[in-house]
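Structure ticket #2291
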Amino acid sequence: MTKILSLVIIGLMVIQIIKPLGLPGLKRRADFWKLAVMALALIVVTAGLSH
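Resolution: structure written out below.
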């Protein structure tokens, strides 16, 4: 599950750099780091729930 989640978030980060998603808080290309922070938090939660 964490591998799939990681691939999805990396894909979103690449899309954000190419063309911003336009979601609240993700209006600029430089906001891709927010996706990385969200991914880290989601992976920690997913790993915590699976163990």
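Closing remark: The first helix runs from residue 2 to 18.
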